[in-house]
Design brief:
Immunoglobulin-like, mainly beta, 5-stranded antiparallel sheet, 48% strand, elongated, 3% helix, Jelly Rolls, 533 residues, 43 strands
């Protein structure tokens, strides 16, 4: 809590070092000062005399005329916080001169001498609620002459009742001491003390994470006393009524933000936190696929000076700025490409596109035992973020006794006859048909050779040691490597070795086929491999 002092004399003076506030109300009766006297004052007494009333013997030993005055305090302007958070109230009397009193004598104001008159000229019996439970004793030796303050407490409930009723608090002050003794009261104030809760402190350790083109995650350290938080971009409110110390923000792409967090409670908002700069990357809008001969428009929002478009080699770009035209560079290419936004040599965002027809591969066993069983073969699509595949085309080249049953993206084949068969597959999307994939399937004995690793990046091993024909003396295996177009790339023979190697490190990524001839059968054993660097 901040601490300061409020003095209501139409002046407010803050003292930040104190935790307690005071609200002071001046006496608003007819006279600026009130004198309590038993006789007309001497010549040096300058405060105007209050009128006399005959109070009789009920209020003290003086049965004659006694000085009387009113103190009136207007509570209507007291701040509501001062009432709600009041810790105490007191009457402060500024004592001036004594007269007709002996040195080290005692002048007293009886408990009946300061009384609430309920805004009425008649005296009442509410002095107990005002807090005057005993006489006020003023020793002339302690306060001989001059303005000295004397304070007495007043019950808080009395202040609350009068403030809520919008009624001035009025007290009658009577000197009821022995005759010919009096005091001068130059001022009277009603002082209300209270503590004022303040807004929470500013949040700290504000951090942004998971920044994307559409938003981010924001977190911070909690502020004591906060009931909720608000997030701003400079002075613009982005999100309010946040109950926890983290939140997700929805932002615009390619935009710089200065994020500030404020803590809030019922007494107001804290100052803003230290700002955190969040720059969202651009977001590229455009088609996920490109067909040859059908260019598409690609764009970004909030285009910034110095930003440039880049592309993969299989695409063409025309135009500049926030919107460009992108097209496929070749009618024969099927696969992935990309466009990106760069700035200052740094790539800010990249968008992948599929070019042309879909690429599919066949998933299933390349060798099956000859035990009259069904085998399932599936289409695996590489049509990344491209248009949807609309149809599949399966071709089965085998003995008619090995039937194929087509179910769209997968087939079942029933093997009845030994031999090597060829299964082919292609797929179609909006751009048309993609290339065929092939799988050579060997049914029955001998068991095929082993080819590994697959996929391969450098040395491919062909192991013929487990082939049944390798047990025959003098069998030499011819081993050939073909690409998808049927072009022969490598050729060697086993020449008595169990494992033969091909170096494929300089071949481009793609699908290749290994053909193994054992010199006994006229058809080769075929293995499909994938070169992937």
């Amino acid at each position: 809590m901040k601490k300061y002092l409020l003095i209501f004399s139409f002046i407010i003076i803050p003292f930040w070092a104190f935790c307690q506030l005071t609200y002071t109300i001046n006496n608003t009766a007819t006279y600026g000062g009130v004198a309590y006297i038993t006789e007309p004052p001497p010549a040096w007494y300058t405060v105007q005399q209050i009128s006399y009333i005959d109070v009789g013997s009920t209020y003290g030993s003086d049965s004659g005329k006694t000085g009387r005055g009113f103190l009136k305090f207007d509570l209507s302007n007291v701040p509501s916080d001062a009432i709600t958070y009041m810790t105490g109230a007191s009457l402060v009397l500024t004592i001036g001169n004594f007269f007709y009193a002996f040195t080290n004598d005692t002048v007293k104001i009886n408990r009946t001498a300061v009384k609430d008159v309920l805004n009425d000229a008649k005296l009442s019996s509410r002095y107990d609620s005002l807090g005057f439970s005993s006489n006020i004793l003023i020793n002339t030796a302690i306060i001989p002459v001059g303005n000295k303050n004397f304070t007495v407490s007043i019950d808080k409930q009395t202040i609350i009742e009068y403030r809520n009723a919008n009624t001035p608090l009025t007290m009658a002050v009577i000197h009821a001491n022995e005759k010919n003794r009096g005091i001068e009261i130059n001022d009277a104030k009603l002082v209300i003390t209270y503590t004022q809760p303040l807004p929470p402190s500013a949040p700290t350790n504000v951090q942004a994470s998971n920044i994307t083109s559409t938003g981010c995650t924001l977190s911070w350290t909690a502020s004591s006393g906060a009931t909720k938080y608000e997030v701003y971009n400079n002075t613009t409110l982005l999100k309010d009524s946040i109950a926890s110390t983290s939140t997700s923000l929805t932002l615009s792409s390619n935009t710089s933000y200065s994020i500030i967090v404020k803590a809030v409670n019922s007494f107001g908002s804290s100052p803003g936190s230290s700002p955190v700069t969040v720059i969202t990357p651009p977001e590229i809008s455009g088609s996920n696929y490109l067909c040859y001969g059908s260019p598409q428009t690609f764009s970004i929002t909030n285009w910034q000076s110095g930003q440039t478009w880049e592309k993969s080699s299989n695409l063409n770009i025309s135009g500049s700025g926030g919107s460009v035209t992108v097209s496929a560079a070749s009618s024969s290419f099927n696969g992935t490409g990309w466009v990106s936004i760069n700035q200052g040599g740094q790539e800010l965002v990249r968008k992948g596109v599929w070019i042309g027809g879909p690429i599919v591969t066949i998933s299933g066993d390349a060798w099956v035992p000859m035990d009259y069983i069904y085998k399932t073969y599936n289409a695996i699509s590489q049509n990344y973020f491209g248009s949807a595949i609309t149809s599949y085309d399966w071709l089965w080249q085998s003995d008619p006794s090995n039937p194929m049953y087509n179910y769209g993206y997968w087939v079942n084949i029933y093997f009845n006859v030994e031999g090597i068969s060829k299964l082919s597959l292609r797929a179609c999307n909006t751009c048309g048909w993609g290339p065929y994939d092939y799988l050579y399937i060997t049914a029955g004995n001998p068991s095929p050779s082993s080819v590994y690793p697959n996929p391969v990046s450098d040395m491919l091993n062909i192991d013929v040691s487990k082939n049944a024909n390798s047990q025959s003396a003098g069998v030499i295996y011819d081993i050939l490597l073909y690409n998808e177009m049927g072009m022969q790339l490598r050729k060697t023979n086993s020449n008595g070795k169990a494992i033969v190697q091909f170096d494929v490190s300089n071949l481009p990524n793609g699908i290749y086929y290994v053909h193994i001839f054992d010199g006994v059968k006229s058809t080769p054993e075929i293995h499909k491999i994938i070169v992937q660097h």
